């Protein structure tokens, strides 16, 4: 079977896209080994939220009701998680002193 130049270009682009996608993932894993797990957990929530804002504000994606409900649940859980972590840290500091 004879491949055309456009097929070779498409193959090269696909392979390049995989490589370019892997670089940030490897960097993310390397950084997550150096950060506290709570910070990494927050990043797991912030990245999709940032992409959501980018998609809706920059690329003009339409927002569905389900999207808003989903992100409301996510951010409500983040507020609860953050509040609980701060409350526990303050309580632990008070017990030490």
Structural class: mainly alpha
Q: So how many helices?
A: 3
Q: Determine the mean pLDDT.
A: 83
Radius of gyration: 21 Å
The helix/strand order is HHH
Beta-strand share of residues? under 5%
Sheet with the most strands, sense and barrel status: none
Helical fraction equals over 70%
pLDDT < 50 runs, ≥5 residues: none
The total of beta strands comes to 0
The first-to-last residue Cα distance is 77 Å
Please tell me what the overall shape is.
Answer: flat
Write the layout of secondary structure elements.
Elements: H1 5-32, H2 37-58, H3 65-96
Identify the notable features of this structure and list them briefly.
flat, 97 residues, mainly alpha
Could you walk me through the main structural features you see in this protein, from its secondary elements to its overall organization?
The protein has helices at 5-32, 37-58, 65-96. With 97 residues, it is mainly α. The chain contains three helices and no strands.
Summarize the structure.
This protein is mainly alpha-helical.
